[in-house]
Amino acid sequence: MTERPDLPATIAVLGAGSWGTTFAKVVADAHPEVQVRLWARRPEVAEEINTHHRNAKYLKDIVLPGNVVASADVADVVVDAPLVVLAVPAQTLRPQLASWKPLLDPEAVVVSLMKGLERGSDARMSEVIKEELGLSDDRVAVISGPNLAMEIARKEPTASVVACTDEDVAQWIARLCTAAYFRPYTNPDVTGVEIGGIVKNVIALCVGICDGKGMGDNTKATVITRGLAETTRLTLALGGDVQTMAGLAGLGDLVATCSSPLSRNHTAGRLLGEGLTLDEVSEQMTQTAEGIKSGRAVLDLATKLGVDMPITEAVVAVLEGEIAVEELAPRLLARELKSEGELQ
Ligand SMILES: NC(=O)c1ccc[n+]([C@@H]2O[C@H](COP(=O)([O-])OP(=O)(O)OC[C@H]3O[C@@H](n4cnc5c(N)ncnc54)[C@H](O)[C@@H]3O)[C@@H](O)[C@H]2O)c1
Ligand SMILES: O=P(O)(O)OC[C@H](O)CO
């Protein structure tokens, strides 16, 4: 096994949006002696972080600790970093990895914070990372859970999941990101943890649409519960663990995202429900709502595997203009009756 310093001198976070910046802050708060280097796509964002310790576009007036340092040059950020954390929009990851590959430390562990499925390949982000960087399972981890960035940036108590097939690596990462307000659990089920984070965005779009149409809490609870059922079916078909679905990366994230006005996916759904077109919603959204693009990939993957995902199917039909938002609930309610316990 590779010897890794328990507390590295530096770690790298690529992507200075809401979650990348917040995660950098978590590690920096937890370990003031570690330099957390953050890659920002735009030099002015790096400049603002270094000069004013703020990233106002994404985190308003939150003050970042002094040991978060930013750069718009990836090479500067990843040099000698034994841990590289990725937080860019899922659909943009693959081409960026190709250009980052020669810059990474050859022994680095790579962590995905992303909750999207790649369109076309239907690949999870951990799979894209392994393919593009040529890494083995024990060098790739995923962090996912009920983790609305703004709440964590405000130091509100939050738990999460670090998933890696190698328990030592998962524990190492968990120790690095354990802060007074952030408690990670470990889980070897990378597939289940990732699928939970991906599909909840599509389910949150559905809940948002229902909220936008003025529907109440019975509707919301129904969509969340049946959303969890279809997420579980997909997870099991991919070899994931049913128990993960009852945990933070399954039910936990689904509840947080479907309930919170901070959620971009929930917000995008609500705007659709209020009558905006998808183009108008996209114009209003200044941050990534992964479900909008991942919905189609989730549906394609489910179809390939013969998994029934009626809520995802209905949301994709809305996103692709096949049905109006008014038709979403009637379409779901008109389905053939079945037993609640059926997992296929
Ligand atoms: N924000 C949250 O609360 C949260 C929590 C958990 C997981 N996530 C996941 O983390 C990932 C990143 O989300 P975020 O909230 O930080 O997104 P964001 O929209 O706030 O920021 C995205 C960042 O990626 C950068 N970027 C790099 N390459 C890009 C490109 N080609 N096109 C557009 N932007 C590019 C942007 O400049 C920006 O800094 C997503 O997969 C999301 O689902 C977000
Ligand atoms: O704002 P959203 O909808 O991308 O959700 C953020 C996080 O994934 C919640 O855990």
TrEMBL record:
Binding locations of NADPH: S18, W19, R41, R42, Y58, K115, A149, R264, E290
Keyword vocabulary terms for this entry: Cytoplasm, Lipid biosynthesis, Lipid metabolism, NAD, NADP, Nucleotide-binding, Oxidoreductase, Phospholipid biosynthesis, Phospholipid metabolism
Coiled-coil blocks: none
Residues that hold sn-glycerol 3-phosphate according to the record: K115, G145, K200, D253, S263, R264, N265
SUPFAM superfamilies listed in its UniProt record: 6-phosphogluconate dehydrogenase C-terminal domain-like, NAD(P)-binding Rossmann-fold domains
PROSITE patterns: NAD_G3PDH
Residue positions of the active site: K200
Top-rank taxon, per record: Bacteria
EC number(s) on file: 1.1.1.94
InterPro entries: 6-PGluconate_DH-like_C_sf (IPR008927), 6PGD_dom2 (IPR013328), G3P_DH_NAD-dep (IPR006168), G3P_DH_NAD-dep_C (IPR006109), G3P_DH_NAD-dep_N (IPR011128), NAD(P)-bd_dom_sf (IPR036291)
Involved pathway(s): Membrane lipid metabolism; glycerophospholipid metabolism
Subcellular location: Cytoplasm
Principal location class: cytoplasm
Limits of the Glycerol-3-phosphate dehydrogenase NAD-dependent N-terminal domain: 11-169
Catalyses which reaction(s): sn-glycerol 3-phosphate + NAD(+) = dihydroxyacetone phosphate + NADH + H(+); sn-glycerol 3-phosphate + NADP(+) = dihydroxyacetone phosphate + NADPH + H(+)
Record-annotated Glycerol-3-phosphate dehydrogenase NAD-dependent C-terminal domain positions: 189-328
Family statement: Belongs to the NAD-dependent glycerol-3-phosphate dehydrogenase family.
NCBIfam families, per the entry: PRK00094.1-2 (NF000940), PRK00094.1-4 (NF000942)
The protein's role, per its UniProt record: Catalyzes the reduction of the glycolytic intermediate dihydroxyacetone phosphate (DHAP) to sn-glycerol 3-phosphate (G3P), the key precursor for phospholipid synthesis.
Name this protein carries in UniProt: Glycerol-3-phosphate dehydrogenase [NAD(P)+]
Name of the gene this protein is made from: gpsA
